[in-house]
Write a structure and sequence with these properties.
Layout (H helix, E strand, L loop, with lengths): L1 E2 H8 L3 H9 L7 E2 L5 E3 L1 H15 L4 H12 L5 H42 L7 H4 L9
């Protein structure tokens, strides 16, 4: 049996994280010693390792719990995992597109700033920001 400190050290997690995963139902509630200490089995080590790997893929604790719940009920969760990964890929693609659009806006503003400075144009506050177009969703 492993105490919360030992299982944390063995998995590279903090004791607080182990207790959080327990409280959220990701790992089974541990047995308690007569003194009230939590004692975990080797199965908990494997599940905690799975949780860490799933988090490394960007999965949330809620998503990981769904995966674990399916597995615990005797179902193969790979279809769910594929769907979740596809959702995360779509979110990453959207973030990349948003960042590319922001980069273009910043480059355009920088170009306008260079042109305004070259012409000695004053602005009410700053011609760089004043000349930047506002996107419809930013208005």
């Amino acid at each position: 049996m492993l105490t919360v400190g030992r299982i944390a050290a063995q998995t590279g997690l903090s004791p607080k994280a182990v207790r959080l995963y327990e409280a959220n139902g990701l790992i089974a509630p541990p047995e308690r010693t007569a003194a009230g200490y939590r004692t975990y089995t080797d199965d908990a080590v494997a599940v905690l390792g799975f949780i860490r790997r799933a988090q490394a893929l960007g999965l949330s604790l809620k998503e990981i719990k769904r995966i674990l719940d399916l597995q615990r009920h005797g179902q193969q969760p790979c279809d769910l995992v594929i769907g979740l990964l596809d959702e995360h890929l779509a979110q990453v693609d959207q973030r990349i597109a948003d960042l590319q659009a922001l980069k273009k806006t910043l480059q355009d503003a920088r170009h306008v700033a260079d042109q305004a400075a070259g012409r000695g144009e004053p602005g009410v506050i700053c011609p760089i920001i004043e000349s930047t177009p506002i996107a419809p969703e930013d208005a």
